[in-house]
Design goal:
about 150 residues; alpha+beta; Aminopeptidase; seven-stranded mixed β-sheet
């Protein structure tokens, strides 16, 4: 069982640890700090935690609300909590949030080599829209897929 709440400063150490083992180019403390500081505007950062230990960060999601779109900029789950529902809880809540705010779609980028993430996003209803150069033209191994989930009428 999971609870989802807004991320707070006290969560940053756990978020950074999850980030370090989840991404090839991990966010810094400053990156997370900018997202947390922007919570009143378009930036939203949520954490999923076990109901039994709500101070334990199992995973997190950072997204931005842009006019009528949710752009998911970061989603990660600690290895010991993967495939146990924390990521899906975050995603389902984000989809419901977008619908409640009259959103038309959710958008995200995913490394084309991250097959488990792609499978997770497809299971959540996302489809691949197009491929982009995520690592620059000199680093073709880090190309990204832009995936979208249409939710508007």
């Amino acid at each position: 069982m999971w609870i989802v709440r807004y991320a707070r400063q006290a969560d940053l150490a756990q978020m950074l640890a999850i980030e370090a083992v989840s991404h090839n180019d991990p966010w810094s403390l400053a990156d997370f700090g900018e997202e947390l500081a922007g919570q009143a505007a378009c930036c939203h950062s949520w954490v999923a935690a076990p109901v039994s230990t709500p101070s334990c960060v199992a995973g997190y999601m950072c997204f931005r609300w842009l006019v009528d779109e949710v752009y998911i900029i970061n989603l990660a789950v600690a290895p010991c909590f993967r495939r146990r529902g924390a990521g899906m809880k975050l995603m389902n809540l984000c989809i419901r949030w977008a619908k409640a705010h009259m959103g038309t779609r959710l958008v995200l980028d995913v490394n084309r080599n991250n097959l488990s993430a792609i499978a997770f996003y497809r299971k959540s209803g996302f489809g691949a829209a197009r491929e982009i150069a995520g690592g620059g033209l000199t680093d073709p191994l880090h190309k990204q897929f832009v995936m979208t989930l249409e939710i508007g009428d």
